[in-house]
Amino acid sequence: MLGLLTTPSGPRSVPLRTVADTTNTATVFYYTKTKNWPSTYLHYAPDGGSWTTVPGTLMEAACTDWVKKTVDLGSAAGLAATFNNGSGTWDNNGGANYALGTGTITVKDGVIAHSDPCADTGGGTGNQATVYYSTASTGWTTANIHYAPAGGSWTTVPGIGMEAACTGWWKRTLDIGTATSLKAAFNNGNGVWDNNNSADYTIPTGTTTVKDRVLTTGATDPCAAQEPDTEAPGAPGNVEAAATGTSIVVSWDAATDDTGVTKYQVTRTGGTSGTVVTDVSSTVYTDSGLAENTTYTYTVKAVDAAGNTSPASAAASATTGENAPAPDAGTPLGTDPRKDPIYFVLTARFYDGDSSNNRGGSQHVKSGNAANADPMFRGDFKGLVEKLDYIKALGFSAVWITPVVLNRSDYDYHGYHGYDFYKVDPRLTSAGASYQDLINAAHAKGMKIYQDVVYNHSSRWGAKGLFTPTVYGVRDSQWSWYYDEKNDGFEYDGLTVEPKSGKSYYNGDLWSTAEPTGNTCVNWGVPTGGKSAEGYTLYNCQWPSPTSGMFPKAYYHQCWIGNWEGEDSRSCWLHEDLADFNTESTPVQNYLIGAYDKYIDMGVDGFRVDTAVHIPRVTWNRRFLPAIHERVTQRFGTTAAQNFFVFGEVAAFVNDKWNRGSVNHSAQFYTWKERKEYSADDATAALEQYDYENGLGTGNQPTSTNAFLSGNSYHTPDHSRFSGMNIIDMRMHMNFGDAQNAYNNGKDSDDSVNDATYNVVYVDSHDYGPNKSSNRYSGGTDAWAENMSLMWTFRGIPTLYYGSEIEFQKGKQIDCGPTCPLAGTGRAYYGDHLAGSVTASDFGTVASASGEVATTLAQPLVRHLQRLNQIRRAVPALQMGQYSTDGITGQMAFKRRYTATGTDSFALVTVTGAATYTGIPNGTYTDAVTGDTKTVTGGTLSVSAPGQGNLRVYVLNGPGKIGGDGPYLK
């Protein structure tokens, strides 16, 4: 979904994908300026065919900064390709090779696009139009103009390549013959369009600029006042390389430049593959699949928008280790995420497939969990794999799991206290049931895995590989029970028992009997004058604190939060167990980007972003979201990147459309790109953005029609200003004490969300119930059925917290901390309800079930849920459609339509109450619930009240009744 713009209408709406043409050739253009190679070779293999002999075929000069080669592909529909200088220096797309199709293809600094960058459209005897197009706000790395002279024909999609004119501007002079104007649309060569909201641009002769949809005719040259940029960036500093197994993470400090760095070139030497050059946009690069026990050396160059390249950095080397046996990496399913309802599980509390990895932690006895034989780490990946068919039988095709990284705290089963972000927590894994095994098993069943990720904070013990404090103490006679005896040969992993202490939660590495070298914590080891609850002496630097100097400001913020809707909610700690990352710091950004690259490479289908509101939107938009998009594109291609689903927890626990009037702390705010340039320094930019946007206020925020029908018509959504992050619908969540309330509040916010059809909608979760209740929802079975009927038919992606299908733990406190038994909370172990066997024949359909799980599947809400999923899956309008309430009477009644990719699905929905629809298309409508058919001839259709929890879904030319009658849908 990242970065989608509106595709043009009419003759330009051809999907931009490479298909074989009648000659079945590929003309490949390669950008040479930033490589500065004396010669360029194309080494390729047609799909299903053999590779050319190294170094490949010599490419020929095409135009300034471009070379090209046309190759005959025979019957192949595309080719795999790499490029080299003929002397052992390669560009192989970071080891993934380039997957190219047929037709005209450009490869520029690692980005694949389409069009002829050397097409000569100017210099003729006819009228001319010089067009400048700005990509400063879209972030495109190339631009094409697709146009038609007045009275003439359109160019072939995607049009012709524009030339880089100056920073942020692209230019093309067009010969339009006798015409005095032209129609135009712009695109990035990979299906991302700007067609002026489907109106196209009308451009006269002369010089015209187009910036952020503002067209200026008779314009001055926007690059005329700028001297050509000939100054190269400075060389990147502090290049570091660290190996884990057969992967190496390379990181460096951002380079400086007078106009701004746009790319980095990472050059690798070593091994048997020669020299490899890879282009990246962030300041961290993960190099995977390397040879075992081999030393590799890396240098980095910075590249600016004009293509000026810095000198190479100092070299950094790392030696790989053994290649641990692991399942083959998965590939994300890559389909539209709106098709997939989500089931949310706390992995450690869902189903126990392997009791050998169960761990109780330091609070096992004190909490009461020991008495219940209920260790906090109980469920695992093996259990989840074994019960994927249960989730599929409910009808869910996506599973949101809690964070998988190695955690460290007194009570870390939930996953939000990350310690080693590069390591999967061993308490979740088993032989034959690794995280990779789970991803692959889910994909084999057509199910997605959404990984919960945390960018905002680490555990109280810091983050291994970035910074871990060793100033906790003092270990005197009173505290020896708490601070374990140091064992220099032991490394904490949460699972392995340290032999001296007998603990898996050993902490002997986290304190020092003497003041540590380089300690910054004030008054280390000096008694504070206070006493613990046990009456023990308390010492300075004994407990995590952001204000004592214990955590360096280069890695962590230095204050406690005071105002949850103030600027300090970005830059201060939420709790002593949540050490707040300085996310505006390059080393922290590198650490996190490198870590989450690992999980992208494993083939996860998306990220749920924890505590997203506590990181400035400008940092998301500058650093983390582009890094996600770039990595998915690099590994799996453009379509997979568009459908990699990122949805953020922007916690706003009020009923306001805008969270207490603070736009920076409102969920919808995070779905938008920035509207202006800020300081190059990320910390300064965060403050500038906070002041600027709050100063504009709630009335001057961007609006969108992406979720709404135009009358009865679906229109192509405009995602040109989409940030890349979707959101959990906090407003509906807060109001789900009553379905009608949730519906009204949701509608009220939709015009300020970039595209609310991607909102993740749930009633309750592992944190809160409606109205910020601390308890799991207890509104009753009828109310649950009504809520589900709304969620499964209204816009957004329906999501269910594990066990809600049987009202599991209803009314129970969701979380009471580490001092009470989990069995009495909303995070209780669910496995007892899943005992036995179950096989799903399809989504929402049980082939067989026995034991307790059969009883679970027979519950009334389960049957209701299964049928809702069957109906939603059969009606595309309910998955991806825009909606409208125009011309409709009824309390929870709406119409939805989806018209794209050869589909036209139109549905009329009413939940619980009666409804009348006027001004609708004439035709035959069939109710998916009852099979009732109504023929509309005068544009009006009326529906009687179906009753609480029930609904009607009249589909134009619909499939008929879907599924059988149940306790609510009948």
Describe this structure in words.
- With 970 residues, the chain is of the alpha+beta class.
- It is built from 15 helices and 52 strands.
- Strands 2, 3, 6, 7, 8, 23, 24, 26 and 27 form a nine-stranded mixed beta sheet that branches.
- A hairpin with a 2-residue loop joins strand 42 and strand 43 (845-850).
- Keywords: Carbohydrate metabolism, Glycosidase, Hydrolase, Metal-binding, Polysaccharide degradation, Signal.
- Its cofactor is Ca(2+).
- Residues 311-326 have a biased composition (Low complexity).
- It comes from Streptomyces phaeofaciens.
Please estimate the helix content.
10-25%
Low-confidence stretches: 1-22
Shape: globular
Note the total helix count. Answer: 15
Please state the CA-atom Rg, rounded to the nearest Å: 29 Å
Number of DSSP strands?
52
Proportion of residues in β-strands: 25-35%
User: End-to-end span in angstroms?
Assistant: 36 Å
Q: Find the structural class using helix and strand composition.
A: alpha+beta
Average pLDDT taken over every residue: 91
